[in-house]
Write a structure and sequence with these properties.
four-stranded antiparallel sheet, alpha/beta, 20 helices, elongated, 592 residues, 9% strand, six-stranded mixed sheet, single chain, 61% helix
Length: 592
């Protein structure tokens, strides 16, 4: 099966506006032909005037040819304007359809997709790349059509009056095309793709640099301390410089060719005028002297159109990166869970594009109304296991079940109603605190929200904000600390009142005061619920009904706190290290 070109894919997004795009291209081709007629009219005027010289007043048809040139020029403008109106409408609708398609597809993707893709990058791919296609469809595609139609008519016109002069003009056009192709082919063929990659890399590193400016100031470092940012700038600069230098000869030759036909026409006219009517040769010379540069402008139009084709091609490639990510399968018949127990049955999972499994043959259960803690070294698979419960990803082998039903056989909305989760990276939207909390339960009353706020120990946060729950986060200097944001997230989870709660390092960014309040909020959130809690601070899961110790994607130990200490294994070693760290204080070393 023949692979569909990116341009065909782009036109496909026009849907019902394909006809407008086609009509715009046809009108552009007609406008291009109309634009050539005034040059013929100029030749006819020159012929009539020079044939009667010096009695110019006796020349017939001058006024007629002059007005014909004006009308055809106006016709060219009107038809070309109509062409651009058609293509602009189609271009804007196509860009809109691309954005809709991208966003609609993203909404179907698993939640885990967003943990590995920054929102800024997704916005650039969907929104900015859709905008890149507008210039191609609105301007360059009709110009490209005109650039294809014009040479056919131009070649006929070049040989219609004097084939020798026409051949010279055609020679300069061919040489200019060869020069243009030399700049865009060979080692420069993949330049635009590399250029876009370098811009993305430099943009990403710039964001990281700006975020790290406080560190730079504190430690009195220079920009060179951010080697990745500096390397990205240097790489971009080197690529742009190399491309510019590689094109210097081709560009010089290209400009010389498209503007050099006049230099060839003068000696040709002098040679042709000997032995023939000099006035007739002069009329032909005037025509070719005017028409030659017009052919050069046509070639320039081809070059700019081809650049837009490359941009649109790159935009469609980037969009395909997202569109080719498969959404999770939906069950034909959604099954309802018959309880709130969570069971991992020989689960193996690896992230897309990786070889080593993040989880390998993991089995455990969380019984209804119990608290199970997950601990272990970083990278052990704790967060991965937690993410499989709300189906951020699908398991590769084995199954994750809730109430005896595989999560893959549950409708996504039903699954989300079963699980509330609070992660260490809290996401608050730039809306009021009321709207942030109410997202967990859109139909909640104000009294229900206030009760959740109180249960999450957020009363002190609202007291210091002039507008209370109506305060918009992130505006006019209103920002929350990490611990305060965690408590707002807990209020959201409490309001949801789901039977299963997943807590992933929920106290990671909290200071001691906030941690104490969060621990009290945990009591409200987890009362009577099935809880899976991930923690680095072992004190937070000491009283859990069961503790699982994970390392390298596998469950190494499990049991209560006392049982694990008695085993004198990995957990006992971690507990010892934790106690030493908790007891450590800043002090002065004894003098040696």
């Amino acid at each position: 099966m023949k692979k569909q070109s990116n341009l065909s894919k782009l036109i496909g997004y026009a849907r019902g506006h394909k006809k407008l795009t086609l009509l715009g291209c046809v009108l552009s081709g007609i406008a291009a032909i109309l634009g050539l007629v005034p040059y013929i009219c100029v030749w006819l005027v020159a012929r009539d005037v020079l044939s009667e010289y010096p009695n110019v007043a006796a020349a017939k048809g001058v006024v007629k040819w002059g007005w014909m040139a004006v009308w055809f020029a106006l016709g060219n403008i009107v038809v070309y304007f109509a062409a651009l109106m058609c293509t602009h409408v189609a271009a804007f609708r196509t860009a809109r359809n691309i954005r809709y398609a991208g966003v609609a597809h993203v909404l179907e993707l698993p939640l885990g997709f967003f943990t590995g893709n920054q929102s800024g990058r997704l916005r650039k791919i969907i929104d900015d790349n859709a905008a890149l296609t507008e210039d191609l469809l609105a301007h360059n595609l009709p110009d490209l059509t005109a650039a294809v139609v014009t040479p056919v008519a131009a070649i006929i016109m070049l040989f219609a009056f004097d084939w020798k002069m026409g051949l010279l003009c055609l020679l300069t056009m061919v040489l200019a095309m060869v020069c243009m192709m030399s700049m865009m082919g060979g080692k420069n063929a993949g330049f635009f793709h590399q250029y876009q990659q370098e811009i993305e890399k430099m943009s990403g590193e710039a964001v990281e640099y700006v975020r790290g400016i406080p560190v730079v100031k504190v430690f009195q470092q220079t920009v060179y301390s951010f080697k990745a940012f500096y390397a990205a700038i240097s790489s971009y600069s080197d690529l742009a410089s190399q491309y510019a230098m590689s094109c210097r000869i081709g560009q010089t030759a290209f400009l010389t060719c498209i503007n050099g036909c006049f230099a060839l026409l003068i000696p040709a006219a002098l040679l042709l005028s000997s032995g023939t009517s000099g006035w007739a040769v002069l009329a032909d010379f005037i025509f070719y002297a005017l028409f030659g540069p017009a052919c050069g402008a046509m070639i320039n139009r081809v070059m700019y159109a081809s650049e837009s084709v490359m941009k649109a091609d790159e935009a469609m490639m980037k969009l395909d990166e997202i569109l080719q990510v498969k959404p999770l399968t939906k069950p034909e018949v959604s099954q309802k869970p018959k309880g709130t127990d969570v069971v991992f049955d020989h689960v193996t999972f690896r992230y897309p594009g990786t070889e080593r499994p993040a989880l390998s043959d993991v089995s455990f259960s969380v019984e209804p109304g119990t608290v199970v803690g997950l601990v272990g070294p970083s990278g052990g698979g704790k967060s991965t296991a937690a993410a499989l419960i709300p189906r951020f990803w699908d398991v590769e082998e084995g199954s994750v079940t809730i109430g005896g039903v595989d999560v893959r056989k549950m409708d996504n909305s039903d699954l989300m109603k079963q699980v509330a989760f609070v992660f260490q990276d809290t996401r608050l939207f730039k809306v009021s605190l009321l709207e942030n909390i109410r997202m967990a339960k859109p139909g909640a009353t104000l009294e229900e929200v206030k009760a959740a706020v109180h249960a999450a120990r957020c009363d002190d946060i609202l007291e210091k904000l002039p507008r209370g729950l109506d305060t918009v986060v992130g505006t006019k200097g209103v920002y929350l600390s990490g611990g305060e944001a965690q408590r707002i997230a807990l209020a959201r989870a409490i309001l949801k009142d789901a039977p299963i709660v997943v807590l992933d390092e929920a106290t990671a960014f909290a200071d001691p005061e906030n941690e104490a309040l969060i621990q009290k909020a945990f009591g409200e959130l987890t009362r009577g619920k099935t809880v899976l809690m991930i923690a680095h601070r072992l004190s937070t899961i000491r009283n859990a009904d069961k503790i699982l110790v994970m390392e390298k994607g596998s469950v190494k130990e499990q049991g209560s706190h006392d049982e694990l200490l008695a085993q004198n294994g990995l957990y006992a070693e971690m507990w010892k290290d934790y106690q030493q760290a908790a007891a450590w204080k800043v002090g002065k070393e004894a003098a040696i």
